[in-house]
Structures are given as C-alpha cells and as structure tokens.
Write a structure and sequence with these properties.
Layout lengths: L2 H10 L7 H17 L3 E7 L2 E7 L5 E9 L13 E5 L2 E5 L3 H20 L6 E6 L10 H6 L4 E7 L8 E5 L1 E10 L3 E2 L9 H13 L14 E9 L5 E2 L2 E10 L5 H11 L4 E9 L2 E2 L5 H9 L5 E4 L5 H6 L4 E3 L13 E3 H17 L1
Parallel strand pairs: 3-6, 3-7, 7-17, 8-16
Antiparallel strand pairs: 1-2, 2-6, 4-5, 5-18, 8-15, 9-13, 9-14, 10-12, 11-13
Helix pairs in contact: 1-3, 3-9, 5-6
C-alpha cells in the first residue's frame, strides 16, 4: 500500500470538522479501504460526528489501540490539493491535514494492514474520529463514555515534535461566568451595579492564585481571560455580563483544585458553569509499551505540552497514552507539510513496535 496515494486522496476530501458531509465521506473512504483489505469496521455517529473502529474483529477491549482524527481546520481551497516538492533530498507534501494529522493516520493505517497480512497476531484496533479540532466530545469522549472501546495502551501520533515523545499534556478547565447587576444611566453610576466590574473582580481574585509563568518556567497551572462581554452603550451601567476563562493544569493538580479556586474567588451575583474539561495526561517512562517504542526509535527526546489532545479522554479513564509524530510542520499553518519519506519510516517503526509486543 502506497502512503502517498492514500494521503493524496484524503487531502482532497475537505473534512473540516463542521462539514458533516465531507467528514462522512472521509470515514466512508477509510471504511471501503479497510474492507478491501479483509478487515472489519464499524461506524459510529453521535450528533453528526462520525467515528470508525477498525480491527480483525470489532469488540470493546484491545491490548493496543491506535487513535487519530481525520478532521481538519478550515483552509483555502487550494490547500485541499496536495503538492509534492523535492527539498533537501526529501519528498515534501503540502496540503491541509498533511501534518495534523492525515499523514500520520495513513502511516498507522498502512502499518496496521501490512502487519496483519504479514502474520502479526496482536490484539489491536484503530479508532479514527472527525471532531478532534472542535473538542472531541462527540468522537473519542462519546466512544469512551459509552464503553464502546478500551485498551491497555493507546498510540496517538498527534503530538511530540519530530519523533520526540510527549509524556505529559495539561488538563483543561474552561468556564463561563455570568454576573448580574442593576442598570442605570452612565452619569449616575451610584444608582447602578456594574456587572462587568464584578467579573473583573472575580478574574483578579482568580489570577492572584496562579503563579507567574514564563517560556522556560511554564509547567504549572495557567489562566487566560479569553472573552469579556457586557453592556451595549457607553452611557449605560451594564446589568449583565459574561466572561470566558481557560485554565490549564498539569499533574498532580486536579479539576477539583481549580474548582476550589474559582468558588473561593466568586463575588455576590456571579455564577459559573464548565464548558470544556479534560484530564491532564501523563505516561510513566517505565511503561512497558513505551519502553519498547523508545528502544525501537533509538532513545528519542521527551517533551511536555501545554495544549491538549484527544488523549486527555483516555487519560481520564486511566488508560496510558503514547504520543509522538513523524517529521512535519506545525499544525494549522499556511503551507502545512509532511515529510513523505519520514511517513514511510514511521510506518516501518510502528510495524517493528507491533512485532515486539
């Protein structure tokens, strides 16, 4: 199976997360491909989000589970046509999704199919989803919450730069705060109760509980004020306002720790609700599956990520996650690219890893 040909086909499918028709089309493409190669599959749908489970047989538990997402962020029309260029003796493919993460998905898929055809008798499966770029709540989270599939180890080629291994990702706690007050004319502020000022006070209370972070010293909880909305005129005291906060936290912190900070920071007539959550991710260097991968790729570098992936949902279920990826560009950029030669090497390393288990 040629990685280049499959990836070219996938790039043409404009599977932006919000494009239900194209997301279904890319899942159907994968479904046809795996069935042509003698594998079984099952497609799941939840709130117009499609996921596909692939294996020699479909069941609810495997030893090894590969996970990847087939959805992409929006791009110019031209980016949905792949272009291959020779650069520094390497074959580089440009196109939306080459790096994040259709390229790595094709490496996984071809390694999986070839391994089975070559007699690898490992209890394994692949789960591809189509909503990672918008949170993963109706893909991986839905699959796990409904006990559709589980595993002893999950391999996600969606992090770790150029073969480095991402051992940790921060957890996510995003909240919407709402404040109510009393409207009045802007010239008579004493007659009103400004809802925006209440939220500013709450934010100040919360931010004081977080240590300062820098580029070199950032492995600690953080808070970002992402949006503050209220009022509709300069000469009017706003009686309602909302604020969005994004908090990230590494182990050993928990969501309860952040909830405690928020609850202790609230003022009268301010409430909040969680809008997005996810557990921090950590894999022990001594994990037997990770140790085999480290040996195969010849002692790679390790990194920690402030961002989050669908791996957080597996981590929330206590399932260890191995995260790494082949040589490619940063995600979501113009002229996104992947090293085609490296995709083939990545495929071969995955096959070697599967044989070692």
């Amino acid at each position: 199976m040629k990685i280049q040909n499959i990836l070219e086909d996938l790039i043409k499918i404009q599977s932006v997360s919000s494009n239900t028709k194209e997301c279904r089309r890319i899942v159907d493409y994968i479904d046809t491909l795996v069935k042509e190669n003698g594998l079984k599959s099952k497609i799941y749908e939840n709130k117009d989000v499609f996921s596909i489970l692939i294996g020699k047989e479909i069941k609810d538990k495997y030893e090894v589970l590969f996970n990847g997402h087939l959805d992409v962020v929006p791009a110019n029309q031209k980016d949905f046509q792949s272009i291959i260029k020779k650069e520094n003796e390497k074959n580089i493919m440009y196109g939306r999704g080459t790096s994040d993460m259709k390229g790595a998905c094709v490496s996984v898929l071809t390694a999986f199919i070839e391994s089975i055809k070559e007699g690898v008798d490992l209890d394994m499966a692949i789960l591809f989803t189509t909503d990672e770029e918008i949170g993963g709540f109706n893909g991986v989270k839905y699959i796990l919450d409904n006990d559709i599939v589980s595993a002893d180890i999950v391999f996600i080629p969606d992090g770790g730069n150029n073969w480095s291994i991402c051992t940790d990702e921060k957890g996510v706690f995003q909240i919407r705060l709402t404040a109510t007050g009393v409207s009045a004319h802007g010239s008579k502020v004493w007659e009103g109760d400004n809802a925006i000022l209440k939220l500013i006070k709450v934010y100040n209370n919360i931010s004081k509980r977080f240590d300062k972070v820098t580029e070199k010293d950032n492995w600690k909880p953080t808070v970002n004020l992402g949006a503050l909305n209220g009022g509709d005129a300069a000469n009017k005291v706003p009686d309602i306002a909302t604020m969005l906060l994004d908090m990230r936290y590494p182990t050993p912190y928990t969501q309860k720790d952040l909830e405690k900070i928020v609850n202790e920071s609230l003022v009268k007539e301010v409430t909040y609700e969680a809008i997005s959550t996810g557990s921090p991710l950590h894999i022990d260097i001594g994990n037997k599956y990770l140790k085999k991968w480290i040996k195969i790729v010849d002692n790679p570098e390790f990194e920690k990520a402030s961002g989050a992936s669908d791996g957080r949902f597996f981590a929330g279920k206590g399932i260890p996650v191995l995260i790494t990826k082949p040589i490619s560009s940063d995600p979501h950029i113009n002229n996104e690219w992947v090293d085609l030669d490296d995709l083939d090497i990545f495929k071969k390393k995955i096959k070697e890893w599967l044989r070692s288990i």
